[in-house]
Design a protein that fits this description.
The protein has 9 helices and no strands.
Length: 202
Amino acid sequence: MPQPEHVVRIALPDQRALPPEIDAYFAKCRDKLGLVPNVLRAYTVNPAKFEAFARFYNQLMLDTETCGLSKLEREMIAVVVSSANRCYYCLVAHGQAVRQLSGDAELGEMMVMNYRVAELPSRQRAILDFAWKLTLHPHDIGEADRQRLRDEGLSERDIFDVCDVAAFFNYTNRVAHGLDMLPNRAYHAMDRAEGDGEDEGG
């Protein structure tokens, strides 16, 4: 049974009459991704928030100069947080990103369903355990949890970035749930074959 066709359950502006800067951004998305992510369409309801969201997301998830976490690690955090929150949109969209960046379709599925079954390096296991606990039991995070990340070689800035990424996806998960946001159907079929992924990606 295919997923429903709506983007969100609120009325969006006419997508054929958006501000020029959003049109230009969407053109870049089509060129780089082959689609316009539905989360961006959802934010067209408020152009100022669209701009802020796009800028923050790009810095958080794509920056390679100031962030010590790999793009794959950030996407894995996104999926693990979304798994804890049962966020359909982010599990589909960021599960695809894990498949793409890792070149491993099975890893993408494990992150979505239960990251603990994956045989991960101890650094990634520690990062994901921290993100899971921060999502479900944030009040229980203590110095021992941060020290475990330090013991795996994470810097103080890296620890901040783990918290920042996890917190961001807790936010977006709640927006997605509140609006009944659905992912682009194209994500489901992307990067399913072994070897389709890249070492780096957008």
